[in-house]
Amino acid sequence: MDLPSLRDAAIEIAKTGGDHTLKYFKKELEVVNKADDSPVTIADRETEQLMRSEILKRFPEHGIIGEEFGITNEESTIQWVLDPIDGTKSFIHGVPFYTTLIGVLVDNEPVIGVINCPALEELCAATVGFGATLNGEPCKMKGTESLEESTVLVTEINRFNRMGMQVQFQELLDKTKIHRTWGDAYGHMMVATGRAEIMIDPILSIWDAAALLPIMKEAGGIFSDFDGNETIHTGNGFSTNKHLYPLVTNIFEGQNP
C-alpha cells in the first residue's frame, strides 16, 4: 500500500471539505441539536457529503465512518474516519479554531491523520513512518520535561465535572504553568506543532480521535487514553510528549469509564 499517496489524497480531500466550510463561516445558520445535545448545521452535513463523494470517487472499495452519516463499506480493511467540522460550537460563534478532520485506519489501526484549520490556513498531517508536517514543513512537539513549565489545553472545563474527574483535573491545573481553552482538535495540533505541551479531553468519539494518534506519534509524542493505552477507541485521550506522558497518566490512570 502506498501510504504517502493515500495521505496526499487525504490532504486534498480535507482541503476540499475545509474550503466548503468557509462558505458558511461567520454566516447566520440554523443550528439543530442532535440526540446527544451536540449542535449540527447544514455546513457539517454538506461538508461530510462532499468529502464522502470525493473519497468514493477515488477509492470506491474503501469504507467511511462519518460523524453525520454513519458507516459505508463497513467490511473494508481501509476506513476513512471523518469529522467535517470538529468544534462546531466554535464554528457557530465565528471562532476560527474549528477543524476538518480525516483519519485513515488500516485493519482498524490509525495510520494517517489530517487536521485542517481552514479559517487559519493551517494544516497538519502525518503518515506513520513518514513524519508529521504543518503546511508541508516538518513539525514536532516541544521537549518540555516538567509539568511546572507546561501549558495545558482543554476543550470545555465542565467535561471533567460531567465525567467525575474534577479532582484529577484540578491536580493537573495545580501542577502546570498555565491553561487555556484552545480546544477540540486544534488544541491537539497546537501540541503537535510545539505551541503547547498537553491537550486533554475526557470525551472523544472515534471521529474526534482517529486523526490524532498518527500525528502525535510522528511529531515525536504520544496520543493515549487515560490509562496509557495508545488507542482511539476508549472515548477519551490526551496528547503530549514522551517526557510528560507518564506524569499525566499518573494523574488520570483508572479514570476510563
Description:
This protein has 9 helices and 15 strands. The protein has an 8-stranded mixed beta sheet with strand order 4-3-5-6-7-8-9-10, with helices on both faces. The model has no long low-confidence stretch (mean pLDDT 96). The chain has helices at residues 3-22, 42-58, 88-92, 158-162, 166-175, 184-192, 206-209, 212-218, 245-252; strands at 32-33, 39-40, 63-66, 70-72, 78-86, 99-106, 109-117, 122-127, 132-134, 137-138, 151-153, 178-180, 198-201, 221-224, 237-241. With 257 residues, it is α+β, with helices and mostly antiparallel strands. It has 2 domains: 3-138, Fructose-1,6-Bisphosphatase, subunit A, domain 1 (Fructose-1,6-Bisphosphatase, Chain A, domain 1), CATH 3.30.540.10; 147-252, D-Maltodextrin-Binding Protein, domain 2.
Annotation keywords:
257 residues, alpha+beta, Fructose-1,6-Bisphosphatase, Chain A, domain 1, D-Maltodextrin-Binding Protein, domain 2, 2 domains, eight-stranded mixed sheet, five-stranded mixed sheet, 9 helices
